[in-house]
């Protein structure tokens, strides 16, 4: 017994030391700087905590002048962020889709109060009666998403676990089909309830009315007139910009890019740069951008928040900011305009740590209001996953190895699960808020449990003779689940 204990402790220590080399590497804003040095310095000062960021691109518009800068690293190899580095911009695209509506309305092609069915006649379900303005302002009573049955929800769940693209395979027909299936919620219609489906339906409806694809309409009516040549919609991996930023979690986990056609008007697939979005912000402030009227606050959300066509207007103390933000699997974005001061800001980041407070500080919004503007994220979920998965497998394996009645297939399942849980903790846990040294402790705990199990291996039966079929079925299903877990966390 003493020899077994010593061996177990030694193996646990070795595994813990090895775990130090393998433990999660939390992203941290790099020291590199490009572009306007003064702006880079101001932006770095606006980053209160560099942990969780990897690289940032910023643009600041003052008195019609656009300045841009890059901070940190665009990828894990240490390449610097440039002002022209491309980032996924996510839901900032909703603001562009709103500008398309304002532009097409000004051109007399559509009217904001036109029903969807008149603009996109192939939509024949109940949603055909919602108006274009309601779609642009999240007031159509549509759900946030409309996955296609249980397989659609399973795909979204799997992508969250694996870090993949939850919108893969969703094309224009999928959005039209979703618009046919959903019934607007009468209780929500007329009130602001954020939706990805609504702006996607709007963008494809405007494109259908023009007889072109959404990406072509956006380029012809908005991007080309503003000289936003670096802004593209990646519908496939081949469309991804060269020398782009690589996205990831704040905890350091790399994340797949999002590409597709269906949800492109809502932010799946668009990439842009601080330089391009700076041009957009300057022209919108000046009122010369196509569809700039989309920023006009038309509908009330609450006392401090209103919305136009895709653009939100929020009061932060004495500052009234017109804005939109964006979030994809591994990127964050923010664009804000303040008409009273003639200033605008763009902040792009290549992790999932919010950049809204940085943008607001650059606009001069007081610290308290800027910090409160950060999206409320359920931090405890990521932290809980990190701690629970790190220790759950090891503790369970130790308990299994010490059981009086045990068989080999049960040991195999417990060992596989212990290390699968470690992998899940490594990939899914939010290590930007949990001490990373906990993970090597979990690795040592799992190794200790595995060592105890190995010392009993020769004396164990292959399977519990009393109920062999039930044990084999249970272990087989457990191993299948563990294999799926391992597949989810592998690169």
UniProtKB/TrEMBL annotation:
Keywords assigned: Membrane, Transmembrane, Transmembrane helix
Source organism (scientific name): Micromonospora zamorensis
Domain Beta-lactamase-related span(s) in chain numbering: 47-354
Stated name of the protein: Beta-lactamase family protein
InterPro entries registered for this protein in UniProt: AmpC-like, Beta-lactam-related, Beta-lactam/transpept-like
Chain segments annotated as transmembrane: 379-399, 406-424, 436-460, 472-490
The keyword Oxidoreductase is assigned to this record: no
A Pfam short name: Beta-lactamase
Database matches in SUPFAM superfamilies: beta-lactamase/transpeptidase-like (SSF56601)
Domain of life (superkingdom): Bacteria
The keyword Ion transport is assigned to this record: no
């Amino acid at each position: 017994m003493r020899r077994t204990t010593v061996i177990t402790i030694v193996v646990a220590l070795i595994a813990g030391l090895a775990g130090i080399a393998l433990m999660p590497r939390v992203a941290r804003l790099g020291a590199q700087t490009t572009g306007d040095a003064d702006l880079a310095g101001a932006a770095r000062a606006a980053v209160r905590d560099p942990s969780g960021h990897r690289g940032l691109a910023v643009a600041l518009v003052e008195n019609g002048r656009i300045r841009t800068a890059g901070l940190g690293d665009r990828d894990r190899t240490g390449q610097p962020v440039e002002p022209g580095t491309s980032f996924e911009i996510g839901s900032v695209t909703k603001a562009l889709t709103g500008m398309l509506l304002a532009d097409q309305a000004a051109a007399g092609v559509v009217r904001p109060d036109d029903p969807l069915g008149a603009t996109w006649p192939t939509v024949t379900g109940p949603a055909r009666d919602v108006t274009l303005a309601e779609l642009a302002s999240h007031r159509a009573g549509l759900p946030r998403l409309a996955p296609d049955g249980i397989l659609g929800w399973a795909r979204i769940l799997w992508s969250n676990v694996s870090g993949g693209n939850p919108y893969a395979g969703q094309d224009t027909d999928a959005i039209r089909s979703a618009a046919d299936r959903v019934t607007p919620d009468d209780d929500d219609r007329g009130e602001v309830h954020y939706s990805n489906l609504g702006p996607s339906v709007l963008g494809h409806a405007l494109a259908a009315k023009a007889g072109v694809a959404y990406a072509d309409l956006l380029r012809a009516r908005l991007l080309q007139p503003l000289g936003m040549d670096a802004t593209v919609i990646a519908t496939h991996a081949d469309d991804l910009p060269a020398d782009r930023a690589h996205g990831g979690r704040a905890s350091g986990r790399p994340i797949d890019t999002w590409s597709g056609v269906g949800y492109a008007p809502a932010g799946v697939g668009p990439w842009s740069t601080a330089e391009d979005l700076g041009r957009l912000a300057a022209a919108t402030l000046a009122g010369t951008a196509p569809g700039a009227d989309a920023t006009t606050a038309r509908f009330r959300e609450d006392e401090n928040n209103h919305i136009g066509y895709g653009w939100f207007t929020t009061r932060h103390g004495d500052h009234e900011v017109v804005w939109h933000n964006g979030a994809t699997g591994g990127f964050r974005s923010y664009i804000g305009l303040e008409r009273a001061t003639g200033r605008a800001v763009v902040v792009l980041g290549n992790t999932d740590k919010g950049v809204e407070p940085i943008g607001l500080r650059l606009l001069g919004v007081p610290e308290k209001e800027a910090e409160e503007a950060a999206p409320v994220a359920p931090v405890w979920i990521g932290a809980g996953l990190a701690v629970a998965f790190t220790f759950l497998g090891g503790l369970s394996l130790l308990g299994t190895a010490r059981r009086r009645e045990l068989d080999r297939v049960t040991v195999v399942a417990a060992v596989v699960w212990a290390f699968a849980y470690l992998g899940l903790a490594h990939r899914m846990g939010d290590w930007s808020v949990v001490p990373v040294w906990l993970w090597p402790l979990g690795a040592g705990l799992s190794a200790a449990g595995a060592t105890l199990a190995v010392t009993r291996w020769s004396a164990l039966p292959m399977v519990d003779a009393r109920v062999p079929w039930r044990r084999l079925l249970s272990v087989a299903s457990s191993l299948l689940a563990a294999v799926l877990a391992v597949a989810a966390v592998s690169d």
